[in-house]
Design brief:
With 382 residues, this protein is mostly helical. The chain has one domain: Growth Hormone, Chain: A (Up-down Bundle). 84% of the residues lie in helices and 0% in strands. It is built from 17 helices and no strands. The longest helix has 30 residues. It is globular.
Length: 382
C-alpha cells in the first residue's frame, strides 16, 4: 500500500499545485486583461468546471478500465494543459487551459483515490485519505510559489516545469501495478444518492469548496487593490497551506477513532465565525491573518467527508472509482459556484455579502448534522 499511497499523494499534489498557482497571478491577469471580480471568478472557476464536466465520465472510466488507466490519461491531459496555460496570451486561452487541467484532474483524482482506497484497510480510511489530502494541500502550498515564480521568470518556464513533472509521474504510474477493473454503471449512482452517509459526505466536500472558492477570489483581489504584489499574496496563501497540510491526517485519524462528525462540528462553528470576520475585515494585514485561520477551519471537512463517501459507497455496493468520480463532481460544483457567484455578488453588493452567506450555510449545516448517524460499527466497538 505504501508505494501506491506515495504515488497517489504525488499525483494529487501536482494537480493542486496547478489549481493554486493562479492565486498570486490573479491580480496581474485582472489588470492586464481588465477583468472584473466576476470575470476573475470565472477564470478561477474554469478549472473546477473542467472537473465538473469530466467527473462522472472519469469515475466510470476508472472503474471500467482500471484506476491506472485513468491516472495515466489524466496525467497526459494535465501536462498538456499546463503547457497551454504557460503560453496563453488572452483570457479565453487561459480559461480553456484551466478547463483542460480540470478535465485531466478529474481522471487522475478518481483513479488515484480509488487505487489507494482499494489497498487501505477500512478502519484506516480516514487516515489514508487525510494523508492524500495533506499531499494535496502541500501542492496548494507550492502552487503560490509556482505562481510567484511565474511572475518573475515567465509563465512558459514555470508551467512547462510542471508539465515535465507530470511526465515523470506518468512513468512512475506506468511502472506500478494497478487494481483490476470493476463493474460499474451510472445507474448504480442512484442508490448511493439515497444513502445518508454518501450524501452527507458529498455535502462536506461541496461546502469547503464553496468556502475556499470565494476566499481565493476575493482575498487576492482585495490585497492586490491594497498594493500587495504577487509575491506577497503568494506568501499569505503559502503560509495558510503550510498550516492546513498537517490538518488532513489529524482530522482523518480523529474521524476513524471518534466518529466522522466530531471534527466536522468543530469545523462548522469555526468556519462560521471566520467567515463573518472576513466579511467585515477592513485592514489588509487583518485579512491576511484571517486567511490563516480560514485555511484550518475550512480544510477540516475534507477527510471525514471523503471517508463518509467511501463508507456510503460500500453500503450501496458502488465502485469506489465511480464514488470518487461523484466526489469530484461535488468538489467541482462548489468551486464553480463559489468563485463565480462570490465574485459576482461582491461586484454588486461588496465582499461582506458572500462571506455572510457562507457563514449562514455553515450554521445551517451544523443544525442539520444531528440527523446523520455516520459512526461505523467498527468505530463504535473500539
Amino acid at each position: 500500500m505504501r508505494r501506491v499511497l506515495i504515488l497517489a499523494c504525488a499525483i494529487v499534489m501536482v494537480d493542486t499545485m496547478l489549481y493554486a498557482a493562479l492565486t498570486p497571478l490573479l491580480p496581474e491577469y485582472a489588470d492586464d486583461f481588465g477583468l472584473s471580480k466576476g470575470a476573475a471568478g470565472l477564470l478561477v472557476a474554469a478549472y473546477a468546471f473542467g472537473v465538473l464536466l469530466g467527473a462522472l465520465p472519469a469515475g466510470l472510466a476508472a472503474a471500467r478500465f482500471g484506476a491506472r488507466a485513468a491516472v495515466l490519461t489524466g496525467l497526459v491531459l494535465v501536462s498538456l494543459a499546463s503547457l497551454g496555460f504557460g503560453f496563453a496570451s488572452d483570457p479565453l486561452a487561459l480559461g480553456l487551459a484551466r478547463l483542460g487541467q480540470g478535465l485531466g484532474s478529474a481522471l487522475s483524482w478518481a483513479g488515484a483515490l480509488a487505487w489507494v482506497i482499494g489497498r487501505a484497510p477500512r478502519e484506516r480510511r480516514g487516515e489514508v485519505l487525510g494523508t492524500a489530502l495533506a499531499a494535496a494541500v502541500f501542492g496548494a502550498l507550492l502552487g503560490p510559489i509556482v505562481g510567484a515564480f511565474a511572475g518573475v521568470v515567465g509563465a512558459p518556464l514555470a508551467f512547462g516545469s510542471l508539465a515535465a513533472l507530470g511526465g515523470a509521474l506518468f512513468v512512475a504510474a506506468w511502472r506500478t501495478d494497478g487494481p483490476a477493473p470493476e463493474s460499474a454503471t451510472l445507474r448504480s449512482v442512484r442508490g448511493a444518492l439515497r444513502e445518508p452517509l454518501f450524501l452527507g459526505g458529498l455535502w462536506l466536500v461541496i461546502l469547503p469548496s464553496l468556502l475556499f472558492g470565494v476566499l481565493m477570489v476575493l482575498v487576492p483581489l482585495e490585497l492586490g487593490d491594497a498594493g500587495w504584489g504577487a509575491t506577497a499574496v503568494g506568501a499569505v496563501f503559502l503560509s495558510a497551506a503550510a498550516l492546513e497540510m498537517f490538518l488532513g491526517p489529524l482530522a482523518g485519524r480523529l474521524s476513524d477513532r471518534r466518529g466522522r462528525l466530531l471534527p466536522v462540528r468543530f469545523g462548522l462553528v469555526a468556519s462560521a465565525l471566520v467567515s463573518l470576520a472576513l466579511a467585515f475585515a477592513g485592514r489588509p494585514a487583518l485579512l491576511a491573518c484571517l486567511v490563516l485561520v480560514a485555511s484550518l477551519s475550512y480544510g477540516i471537512f475534507y477527510a471525514p467527508g471523503m471517508a463518509l463517501i467511501a463508507d456510503g459507497a460500500d453500503e450501496q455496493g458502488l465502485a469506489q472509482a465511480l464514488a470518487f468520480g461523484v466526489m469530484n463532481a461535488a468538489w467541482a460544483l462548489g468551486n464553480v459556484v463559489g468563485p463565480a457567484t462570490g465574485g459576482g455578488l461582491a461586484d454588486v453588493a461588496g465582499d461582506a455579502v458572500p462571506f455572510t452567506i457562507l457563514a449562514a450555510l455553515c450554521l445551517a449545516t451544523l443544525a442539520l448534522s444531528g440527523r446523520l448517524r455516520p459512526t461505523p460499527a467498527w468505530v463504535a466497538s473500539l
